[in-house]
Amino acid sequence: MSVITTRREGEVLVVTSNNPPVNALGQAVRAGLADAMAEAAGDDAIQAVVICCEGRTFFAGADITEFGKPPVGPSLPEVIDAIEASAKPVVAAIHGTALGGGLEVALGCHYRIAVASARLGLPEVKLGILPGAGGTQRLPRVVGVAEALPMIVTGNPIPAAQAGKIGLVDKLVAEDGLAESGVAFARSVIGKADHPVSSKRTDKIGEIPSDSDFFDEFRKTQMRRLKGFEAPEACIEAVKAAIDLPYEEGVKKERELFGKLVTGTQSKALRHVFFAERAAAKIDGIPADTPVLPVKKVGILGAGTMGGGIAMNFLTAGYAVTILEREQEALDRGVSIIRKNYERSAAKGRFTADQVERAMGLLTPTLDMNDLADCDLVIEAVFENMDVKKDVFRKLDGIVKPGAILASNTSYLNVDEMAAETKRPGSVLGLHFFSPANVMRLLEIVRAAKTEPAVLKTAMDLAKKIGKVAVVSGVCFGFIGNRMLSPRQRAAQAMLLQGAKPWDVDKALTDFGMPMGPFQMSDLAGLDLGWDKANSKSETIRDVLCERDRRGQKTGKGFYDYDENRRPSPSKEVEAIIDEFAAKSGLEQRVFSQDEIRERLLFPMINEGAKILEEGMAQRASDIDTVWINGYGWPAYTGGPMFWADTIGLDKVVAGLKAHAAASGAEPDICKLLEDKAAKGETFN
Ligand code: T1G
């Protein structure tokens, strides 16, 4: 069955793509489109063409799986140029998501119609590239630079209605009968003398000169998104070329920029990230026909920071949530914080007032655990103490209906032990959200020894519905992310005793692209987590800091001093405390280069990741990358810790671990899987 079929509707040729799952513009689709355009050109009975797609979406872009392989013609630019050169009007009939090359095909068409639920975008920048089939040259001509630039540099799609407003879509049509609407529209333009051939359009391109401060102003709004990424700047350069150069020259400039990016490390890393996030949704070892269990009502134990944030995920997705606290005052505080969070997001335009009221209307606060009886899923977010959690699971098991899922939001603790407190171990698992739970995309689904396949699959299905990127972890201390965080924090502390200062250590990681370094992170979380105040005897730097009430951002000082806006600055007092402990340690004091600090912090993480893989605690190396990018802000343009290790070479990681151990007079701790792979020149991904 050809992926592209054509049929005649009187004088209109309807060209349909059927290339599941997303009508990616693979070679067969491109060839089919080229043949269809030749058919249209060669038959006088055909006076117009409609291009549409079967399945869930219009073309969602080039076929990313073809990247890095030898190109096979016809190229997408060639196909689009043939569409645009047609003497007969070509109409793109859009549904789903017209993205990347898909939107570029639509831009080569003379007209575009779309259903209201469609979205249109050029997300190439998220893959470390830029629109490489004329998008940076045609879109500004169709909608103007001011509208085109954000679409190209952020990669975020826009809804069809907005596309209609800016002239990207000529007509919004009914959700049903899109092809028929396309034929009707095509008939309405047959015979029109001058089709608005986009690539020749210059009416909107002249509005903003390329030396306008519009570009610098725009850069300022995108600083966080732009930091460290190469593609956004190239996108800006390509749009400037659309302003300054004739179309053909501009396309050449686009192609040159595309060629540099697509062969670069950042694009390889970001394409890895794209597929890694999707691979993570695949759970090894469960039958394909495993059912997804029905979940309509969710119970949350604990209305604190985590419980409230977790509740918001489900409320926003339209689930009824019953939230439980022990005291009325804590319950009221929790509910009020949820409302305040919604209102703050609404003020930023993320929610409408109606959406906030709808979400809050789904929330039922209670002090009575029996009110959770009819929940399909209950998540506990109570104090991180095993005895407390065991007691909660025992009580829940006796109250909640048979078949309901019981989940723990624990960050570290053993979910098998919690499951053993119940008569339903098959329905118990961990759902580890990351703070702030209503913002961070990552969810670690902790697979306990007895967790049933249907429960796992239901959790994965729920994760997607609440907009999370989920990764399955086995039961081990800290699961995947926090388990790898521990050796990094230990390495950071150890360097303080050898002459390093917190701000130098943190800088090495923020320069690498992390949002913060180990000490900034400790100050954010609070230095007194697990600190035993009553028995503290100034034995460690952390003890002394806490004893002096330097407990982190919440007390205005920790490793850093913080101003009223929580901006950090190095502290002389802390420096003196560190110097005292370093002198007492008897260790050789030295100056660390930024490269060495980075290696000392990150290589032990890679080693821990290798152990996690070796023990089967993660299903695949790319899952570990997905955890660190979505849970801790690891710079996506390096692909995540395991992809980054592959890029620099596992032999370099092993050599570094050995060298740093020797320099500290310690025995190297190197995972066998890592050592074997390094020796064989293999990679994790
Ligand atoms: N190429 C190949 N496979 C793709 C694909 C693509 N462009 N998009 C999705 N898939 C696969 C995906 O791996 C998964 O496979 C399945 O489709 C469902 O995807 C020349 C060079 C369209 C919004 O960046 O954003 O055009 O895991 O799970 O959540 O200038 O997929 O089932 O085996 O994500 O409903 C630009 C990328 C390419 C769009 C649907 N286009 N895709 O989301 O399903 S570069 C993109 C998406 C380009 C031109 C340049 C999303 C989606 P599997 P899914 P979804």
Automatic annotation (TrEMBL):
The chemistry this enzyme catalyses reads: a (3S)-3-hydroxyacyl-CoA + NAD(+) = a 3-oxoacyl-CoA + NADH + H(+)
Mind telling me which InterPro entries this protein's record contains? 3-OHacyl-CoA_DH_NAD-bd, 3HC_DH_C, 6-PGluconate_DH-like_C_sf, ClpP/crotonase-like_dom_sf, Enoyl-CoA_hyd/isom_CS, Enoyl-CoA_hydra/iso, NAD(P)-bd_dom_sf
Name the Gene3D superfamilies on file: 1.10.1040.50, 2-enoyl-CoA Hydratase, Chain A, domain 1, NAD(P)-binding Rossmann-like Domain
Query: What subcellular locations does the record give?
Result: Peroxisome
Keyword RNA-binding on this protein? Answer: no
Q: Could you tell me which pathway this protein works in?
A: Lipid metabolism; fatty acid beta-oxidation
Please list the residue ranges annotated as the 3-hydroxyacyl-CoA dehydrogenase NAD binding domain. 297-473
**Pfam families recorded:** 3HCDH, 3HCDH_N, ECH_1
One GO molecular function term of this record is: NAD+ binding
Task: Domain (3-hydroxyacyl-CoA dehydrogenase C-terminal): give its ranges.
Answer: 478-562, 599-682
Q: Which PANTHER family match?
A: 3-HYDROXYACYL-COA DEHYROGENASE, PEROXISOMAL BIFUNCTIONAL ENZYME
Subunit structure and binding partners: Monomer.
Similarity-based family = In the N-terminal section; belongs to the enoyl-CoA hydratase/isomerase family.
Q: What is this protein called?
A: 3-hydroxyacyl-CoA dehydrogenase
Species this protein is from: Maricaulis virginensis
